[in-house]
Amino acid sequence: MLVCVMAEELMLPAPEKDCGSLEGLSSFHSLEELILDNNLLGDDLVLPGLPRLHTLTLNKNQISDLECLLDHLAEVTPALEYLSLLGNVACPNELVSLEKDEEDYKRYRYFVLHKLPNLKFLDAQKVTKQEREEALVRGAFMKVVKPKVSSEEVAASLEHHYTPLPSASRELTSHRGVLGKCRYVYYGKNSEGNRFIRDDQL
Known about the structure:
The chain has 202 residues and is α/β, with parallel strands linked by helices. The protein is built from 4 helices and 8 strands, in the order βββββαβαββαα.
């Protein structure tokens, strides 16, 4: 018997920013699929023990601590086979930041598979044999560690905002640049570099 429940069907209150508990799910011992997309869930997400849950989607939430989430899921959802985290900071791809690339996403997949080796699908993509082998060998080293920044350093960086342009630079709208054809062609005959190079050295 397939049991599929969406967050809206549970009649749960919208999770507050400082509380992502879904303890109301503890009454659904036979729950097999759970969709929690677009629920503002963060790193404080708490799921009850769901021993039969095999499909979980947490797309477009506010999850950033990947390791904490995976450790929690490994504990409360031992039968999990399908997981989707697209649209979260914890899932590094171009949906979240243009600074992320394919290599970032590969490392993310290896780390997830290292933590949850029973997954068959991750973010709507089937887990390949090669990915499992890579996760087994290198998955533990794919964790992204963010440097800790103190509140004093943050305040100092806000006070001294760096800019490569001088404060007295011209406005962008006052430029005088034009495009056109140049009548002169420079061949480098009289350049400072060529003065000290003989023809036989070229």
